[in-house]
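new request in #modeling-help
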Amino acid sequence: METVDILLTGGMVLTMNGVMDRYADGAVAIRNDSIVAVGPTATIQADYRAKEIIDCRGQLVMPGLVNAHTHMPMTLLRAMADDLRLDVWLMGYMMPTEREFVNEKFCRLGTELSCAEMIKGGTTLLADMYYYESEVAATIAGAGLRAICSQTVLKFPAPDADSYEDSLAYTREFVQEWKGHSLIVPSVAPHAPYTCTDEILQACAAIAIDYGVPLHTHILETRQEADDSWREFEKKVVNRVADLGVFEAKTIAAHCVHVDTEQIMLLKQHGVAVAHNPTSNLKLASGIAPVKEMLERGIKLAVGTDGAASNNDLDMFEEMRLAAMLVKGATFDPVVLPAKDALLMATRWGAEALGLGEITGSLEPGKRADLVILRRDPLHNVPHFERDPHSVYSQVVYAAHASDVQHTMVNGQWLMRDRELLTLDEDRIRSEASGMARQIDQFLIEREDNVLNKLVAIGGVHQEESFEIQVKARIEDDSLIRDLLEHSLVSVVRHNHYRQYDTYFLFSDEQQGRVRYREDDFIDEHGQLISARTRLTYTIPDKAAEFDEAVLLSHSRFIAPADRPLRFYREYFQANRECEIQKDRLRWHILYKGVLFYLNYDRIMVPETDARFIEIKSRTWSKGDAEYKAALTTEMLTDILGIPSDARVRLEYVDLCPYSP
Amino acid sequence: METVDILLTGGMVLTMNGVMDRYADGAVAIRNDSIVAVGPTATIQADYRAKEIIDCRGQLVMPGLVNAHTHMPMTLLRAMADDLRLDVWLMGYMMPTEREFVNEKFCRLGTELSCAEMIKGGTTLLADMYYYESEVAATIAGAGLRAICSQTVLKFPAPDADSYEDSLAYTREFVQEWKGHSLIVPSVAPHAPYTCTDEILQACAAIAIDYGVPLHTHILETRQEADDSWREFEKKVVNRVADLGVFEAKTIAAHCVHVDTEQIMLLKQHGVAVAHNPTSNLKLASGIAPVKEMLERGIKLAVGTDGAASNNDLDMFEEMRLAAMLVKGATFDPVVLPAKDALLMATRWGAEALGLGEITGSLEPGKRADLVILRRDPLHNVPHFERDPHSVYSQVVYAAHASDVQHTMVNGQWLMRDRELLTLDEDRIRSEASGMARQIDQFLIEREDNVLNKLVAIGGVHQEESFEIQVKARIEDDSLIRDLLEHSLVSVVRHNHYRQYDTYFLFSDEQQGRVRYREDDFIDEHGQLISARTRLTYTIPDKAAEFDEAVLLSHSRFIAPADRPLRFYREYFQANRECEIQKDRLRWHILYKGVLFYLNYDRIMVPETDARFIEIKSRTWSKGDAEYKAALTTEMLTDILGIPSDARVRLEYVDLCPYSP
């Protein structure tokens, strides 16, 4: 009779091994970090005596769940900003917040929170991808979980690196440091093909190959990525990555929502494992991955929660349940991915996909003791059918909840007993996370409080201080303009024709200024569109003074190229009111008495009106210069054009908007 | 200062009222069955003194969840038979089991189990549809939940009625009995347009209108239903139901997965409320309902779990979460149905859809006190952001779990405190449900054990005992047949030409007999298909005896029209082996010496072979008759056709199948 450390007896044991052995009254014998034997309780108890015997009657004993793709520290951003478009969410909230807050401490705390939630939800193995991965790895190891820890590399400056060269150096160091750890497998994470250059992808693959560690990346999460790749590289994403030789490394590809048949076959050919993230793909509206075809073509499939910022929890019960159901509804096929296979995806297949199939993912002698014990008595699991061998898998996948997990063990060590965490201090984590949320709230409140900060947060902005002399008047038609242009004191330097589509974002608090999104369409002499430009202009409230009948405007303007669609800015700025102005503008740069003026003849198209305006403007730098130019504009308006005083208007075009409260 | 019964203080109160009032430190005052006041704790405490004050600090107080479509007793069938096609699941498992087990006791027990699960998961109002609805209603009322209880009527015999006339009479009685109850609203449930005649639909509507109670039905759960309706009625389903005047009753339509724009507009026009069941629709592969369009067109939308046999739990947290996410992924629109609206669907909108918006669904003075108190400290909810007013809805919808529900109150009564059920005995329910599962297991095991029982379970079978004399021989071609047909002692009574496509389902245990699915294609003289017929034949092992060189076969055969596709039978019978035989059959009914014989000339097409066979058969009833007919067949074969003894074969066509183990 052999002695072991722990015997789990009397439970319904789901081994999830190659032949799906189940024992209705089963036992598991554990010594040190490993499983020594699995079988009927009577047999195991006849062969083994244990220091500790745990009675699992009425409970389920099964392998711990495998979360194949997540970003651990991001639990600290859970529900911070939800139900936004991907770009608004990512560029508007996640990245600015990450830029501000992500450091070693943030990563440790967020990882602790995630580890605690995972242990409580029965996850024993996970694949992370984030920054400061050494901190993440140390925290996970401290919590006692098993993990693939992937250090992110991308072409932009990252929270933990000013350049990708730094990232690559840090990654190499990180891999060296953690290689061979009993719980942690270090890994290289080129963030995604669209955020990495070819050179970065290849450098990452080289590290993975050199050290024999996995490469973990995002592939084709969005349709946009597919379109962009074709435009930029004239290649499909998977083809591009394959051609670069990246798949020579043992690769884990997260998402793969928009892979087509050719790309699925390439993934299969290169043995790339896919981490399916159904919740995140639905919540961010990325789409529904072709899981049925991937299964049929023999792709190694695993399932992951993605980060808590897009899920919003790390609940593998919900995730495998959704994986099992979504593919059925999406393909009208109720027999694809039955519960048994969904549980395999979340256990043995998951471990195999992560390259750890030899040591975990099923309850088999010789494998590490990574397991969970589930209560079956919570009413949502009741009753239990025994006729159909699939019923127990149905119960686990379709009905069981994370809260049914009673005990969690990794590497032979208990991480949770009777729902008490043994390696983490739940209260401290909760309290520190709460403190972090307060800081982030404060940061975002200050930023939101100030439209300018919000603008700055999305990048690309430059400031422009301008002082302008301006007069504006209603006129009937352009005949007056012709008079001015043909006047002997005037010479035309340049002429342009635009159509301008302006959308103003207005805020209840006028001190917030306003944001204008402008599309300038340049029109040739035949009335055809030559080119278009989009710009974002933020104007803080005017300080205006009058000189004679002209106006001195003092703008403090911030201008940025508007490289995202109007919709982005609409959702991002969350203005109280929006106003649309479209106009046809004829513009001349003229010299009058040798001074440069801008002359605009504007016909307002939207809102519908017959209004036509003449504007004469000039830049200025000093009070004296302003007075002089004001006098010149008055001369042009009054003396040359004969426009009466009462035709002059003080309005700005935004004032033409009907006020809708 | 007024006195109330209960004050809930210090919680984050989500009223879900028309302006979505929230109180970070809020209170609810409750007297008898109703809410008296909701507001900031300080204000409420200044105005009200209470017999009982419950400190809700750190917790969420919100309306209880509304499960808008379910079948309460079906929790007893949870995970009984999963991951099957809808027809196999419904016709093969659910309906036979229901026919056998559903009675008053089953409905009470199943409803108790569902009530217990719902109270634990924070549901306070539900809409049920089942049989013996008076038992269901009494059980729900006993458990203290609020419900719409809908008595099912359909054109087939039901567990609680031999005919629909009985159903209608029972329904009328049921409605009279329960109308005016403080917790139960009785309702009429014509099961679905495809399971009801026009007459039934109209009779149901008449009852609903007479008594002013809701009508609850399934509409367009599957694409099949859409196709069938068009074929049978030349109308879309919703148009047909609308034309019948059914929507004059206040209607709740479950599913509506396959409604098109026209039908959505009709539903809107008639004020029909839709209960969306995303889990069930995915799990049964029915599809994804057009929730975005229904929302845009102003349909009153609610969300339901459907029965636990197709979900497999009654967890409204999972359901609203899935509702919120699925529509985003399916439409590539991440801003549709934000968390706030998903929670509305599961609270106030749900109550409004069920016609109870006046009394429940939000926390407002004058409404009944139907509410839940949720813990926010479980780690999957941590941290909490306060900047964005939507964060708290995100937390509830995307992260909270049913297990976070700490207390549940309906109509001012506590149904659960600190997760202890107060109106139901959890242990007794669990134990009785377990007993029921054992009986059902046993029933299904006996049935599965016996192919005949399985056949009988799907209905339409008639038994046919037959004793047949038969000889069969290989021949080269049909010239011999011509000789026989032209013989002076032979006259041809009838001639047919078929192509026969046979699929045999074979079982390892040969005592199980075998099932043959046959498609008979009738061919005219030009070789064109006239018509086709499909039949299912179950044959138990032959008891054969030889007479001379002919064979006496004693069949005990069961024949049923095969009105479902081959695939159904394949998945349903789960045979160990399958065998396909196709042949071209020329058949003559002949009289030889005045005795009726069947003469077949069979050319085997599949498996590929040159084999051609002649068969001569005759029915028989006595040993003497059998001996006489055996002698006649031998005369024909030997004397007229000159077929040698060794050309005669004992095989049956199924024996031509290559054996694949």
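bot summary: Chain B touches chain A through 83 residues (CB under 8 Å).
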